[in-house]
Design a protein that fits this description.
The chain is of the alpha+beta class. It is built from six helices and ten strands. The protein has a five-stranded antiparallel sheet with strand order 3-2-1-5-4, sandwiched between helices. A five-stranded antiparallel sheet has the order 7-6-10-9-8. The radius of gyration is 30 Å and the shape is elongated.
């Protein structure tokens, strides 16, 4: 081959490598955007994007329920796992894989160059493994391990966020169940708006539905003589001062009134300071 031909071959190879790197980088960006979204991720789509972008033959994700066990070589032993994978030969997603499907994955990984990383949160919570496999004859990206590590870190952050969101949802549901069935009137409010009142509170205020109270102010249901005192108490609670009980006069929508004892503590409602008020 003459010098011109050699230069042409080198230039073509360099262009191909540049194109491959751009494709890989684009796949990593797409995966990162998927995991940064507030929507729940479709893992089959995520694995396909990663596999096609990196030129892999197979990409797999083996998830385990997070717990506080330290990471070890037997991290999956005795633990239920969820196996998901994408391959160029077949595309398969199973929430509870059977033994035959596990063998199918093993056969896909046979005679492949496999890279895998543990999915670990910043607090070392173990979520499973992310792996990627190439044909032995193929030339995987030179930084395959780094790429996989980046995606694994972003995936761990996503799983940690989803776990925290689920815990928050469960906590809020437990609180709502407790408040909804509590015999004492309970409401959440600021100095300018009521956000929530339980059934006992609706009964006290003489209303039939939550919608008749939410959006109004607490002062719509309190005797004018008590407005200044209650406003001062709410302001103190929202600023973090210790809570103290006070007697107030509640005016119902039907014009009747009740003398109650109120007790308020600071809470966070939709990310903003508010007061939880219990009346009895």
């Amino acid at each position: 081959m003459n010098a011109t031909g050699e230069l042409g071959t080198v230039a073509t190879g360099s262009a191909d490598r540049t194109q491959d790197r751009s494709r890989v980088e684009e796949a990593v960006v797409q995966v990162s955007l998927l995991l940064a979204s507030t929507r729940e991720v479709e893992y089959s789509h995520l694995l396909r994007v990663l596999g096609e972008g990196t030129g892999a033959e197979c990409v797999y994700l083996q998830r385990v329920p997070p717990d506080n066990r330290p990471l070890s070589s037997s991290a999956l032993k005795g633990r239920e796992s969820e196996l998901l994978f994408w391959s160029r030969a077949i595309s398969l997603e199973n929430d509870t894989p059977e033994r035959g499907e596990e063998i199918a994955l093993e056969s896909l990984l046979a005679d492949k160059r496999v890279f895998a990383v543990p999915i670990l949160s910043a607090e070392d919570t173990f979520y499973g493994y992310l792996g990627i496999a190439y044909d032995q004859q193929a030339s995987p990206p030179g930084d395959s391990e780094r790429i996989l590590s980046i995606v694994g870190d972003v995936l761990a952050s996503y799983l940690e966020r989803r776990r925290a969101e689920k815990a928050l949802e469960e906590s809020e549901q437990r609180y709502r169940n407790l408040a909804e069935n509590h015999p004492d009137p309970i409401l959440i409010a600021t100095r300018s708006e009521i956000f929530y009142v339980n059934p006992a509170g609706c009964k006290l205020f003489g209303v039939d539905a939550l919608e008749q109270v939410v959006g109004r102010t607490l002062f719509d249901f309190i005797s004018a003589e008590d407005h200044a005192r209650v406003d001062q108490r709410l302001k103190a609670v929202l600023e973090g001062e210790p809570a103290t009980a006070q007697r107030i006069e509640v005016t119902r929508l039907d014009g009747e009134w009740r003398i109650v004892e109120s007790f308020a503590v600071p809470v966070v409602h939709e990310g903003k300071p508010a007061a939880q008020v219990v009346l009895r």
